[in-house]
Structures are given as C-alpha cells and as structure tokens.
## 1
Amino acid sequence: MTEYTRGTPSLVTGSMYISGTETISLTTANTPLVVKPFVEGVSRGTTLDGTNGTITILTTGLYKISITVSLNASKIATLHGHLLIDSTHSVEIEFERGVSASGAIGNAGADGILSLTAGSVLGTCIESTATNTDVNFVHAQFSVIGLGP
C-alpha cells in the first residue's frame, strides 16, 4: 500500500450566501445599495466580512467571480445588480431582472473573470427603477475562485 501525503491546499476561494429572506429597502430609484448581510462560507486566501457583504482578495491574480440571486420586489420594476470593486461599480459583472408582478420570485446572476490586485474589496449592490421598493432576497450566493497569477 502506498501512503498518501496531503499537500498544502493551493485553491483560493471565498464564498458567502443568503438563505431565507433578507430585505433591502430601496427608497430612491436608480440608486444602488450594498447587499448585506451574508452568511460567511468557505474562505481560503480571502477574507470574508458577511456583516458588510465583502470579500477581500489577499493575492494578486486572476479570479472567477459569481453572483446568483433568487429574489422578488414589492413593486413592478427592473432590478439591476452589479459587482463592486473597492466600492466602485464594475461594468464587467452585472445582472438584471424584470419584476412583472409584485412578489413574483425569479432568478438572476452573472459571473466573469477579472484580474484583481491584493487588497481589492469586492461587494455586490442592487438598485430598482421604482422608488420605495423592497427587494427580498430569498437566496443569494457571492463567490470568488482564484485561477492563478
């Protein structure tokens, strides 16, 4: 029998989720708010902050970033979500969902590959085309996977 020795894991990953319902109240149309809080999941080579909804990258490199949501809204509207990098809207990773009836649950998501530097802080935000809209996240997943230097 050959003995197997486990090496040091090299996978860089960070994952957070919302399970149940988390409501964000959007009072002003087309004004994004950060999605938070999240439940912290697996982290290796990243720092998770579920309270503030952020993932901090610890090593410069190439990363696959994924955002998936199941949500509804209190008004008929178009919901627009996107990735934040250091509190700045990223046009590379965005999603949109039209709500045709108040309370109708639907899914949306986006993912992409970006080159990020050590210290980059990632987050997600959501906005609505309607004023005074409650957005209910039934489920959400926000994750990064390192692809190498």
Note: The chain has no helices and eleven strands.
## 2
Amino acid sequence: MEVYRLQNLLSALKGEKEVDIDELTKTYKFQQLLKESKVYELEEKVLSLNNSYIQALDTKQIEKQTAAYYATPEGEECKKRLEQLIRQTEDDWNQIIRKNISHIDEIIRRKLGSQWGVLGYNEGYLNIGVINADESTPERRNPYFGQDICIYYKKNNYPPYMECLRSNCGTTGDFSMEGGQTVGERAMFYVGLGLLYSDAALINDIKSTMANGVVVIDRLREEYKVLRATLADPLKIGKKLKAERHSQSVQAKRKPKHGRGI
C-alpha cells in the first residue's frame, strides 16, 4: 500500500493521473503481486520512491523560488547574464570544432590531395576520407564507399597515465592494382593512406589538434554544466535543502534511545 501511496504523491506533483488504491486492492492482479512480493524488495521500492518524492518536492520548491526571484529586477538581470554566458559557451564550443575541422582539412588536403577532407569531428574523434563530390552537399560530405578512416585520440589524466592516437580503417575488398590515378579508385585511396601513415609530422599535427580540442571542450563542458545548474537554481536552494536534510539526519542518529525500564 505504501508503494502506491508514494506513487500517487509523485503523480500529484507531476500533474499525472493517480491510481485508485481502494479499487486496485480489489483486483486479482494486485492480490497476485502481493503474494509474489518479497519484503526486502518492497522495502527497497518504498525507500526509492520516498527519495524520489523528496527530490520532486525539492525541485518544485526550487522552481517556485527561482521563478519568484527571476520576476524581480535583480533576478531578471541575473537570468539575462547567465543566458548570455551560456550562449557564449555554446558559441566557443562550435568555434573550436569549426577551427579544428578547418585546420585538419587544410593539412590533409595539402599532404594527401584535394580529394581528401574531414567527414566528421568531435572530442577525441576524427573521420577523414576521399570525398565523393557527386553525393555530397555543403552541409554533409559523403566518402566513396570504404574510403574513409576513423582516428581516435585518448589521454588518461590518472594512473596509468597514457596518451594514444589510434586508427580504424576497414577493408574494402579486392580491387585493381592498376591505375590508381583517378579519384574514387580504391588504389588511389590506399596511396593516400600510405602517405598519411608515413608522414610523422602530419600525424603529430593531427594529434596535437585533437589533444587541444579535448582540453578546450572538456573545459567548456564543465563551464556549461555549472552555468546550466546556476540558471536552474541561482539562489542555491537545492544546496540549502540538502544541508538541512543532512543536519536532520545527523540529529536523528544522535537522539538518545531510552533504556528498558525495570
């Protein structure tokens, strides 16, 4: 019963339909569930629902007080400032992505040929290949089938400390060993692949660019996370509520237990 009572409390907070507990207990399904339920499972469920209910109550309180604060001149100014900082962080994120794509595009085209280009890039991930101009658009580049390579950068900032640059290039099946001078030929793709692997300076440039991208994006991600959290709770009400609950819990544990009388 306690499980359904807590579920109804949560539903009421969220504006969802509540369960008619009196009617539910009369059903055959409920009676079967009751027989099959284990005490420890029910206790865990009650504890989980109780925690969820407390969190939902806190969220409602935070939203209510935050809305009231943002309705004030001071709060309105604070909200505008935070939203501007969030937009700036998003712009900085997009800028580092575009900058690194542009740089890698330039160096691989110069070394491997103008038919090569960046197909995809994000933190620690790079996909380059021979671009199929006929099947590509300004918004999306598509490679010739099987003529692309994925490159991964990873660095551990904790033991065991390590930094690595790895690649994955799947086989494209058999192909002619003759020719290799026309864009789209598999032989020409592998010529470019050989040039890539044999150029230590090019590989180091790609690695440095990806490493810098990881550092910058990690920093921006943390800034974005903090700004989002601050926008949702500028008065740090959640932190205060958490501290209050912790204090109440500690006091409850310290409360002296009465001994058994004689």
Note: The two ends are 38 Å apart (CA to CA).
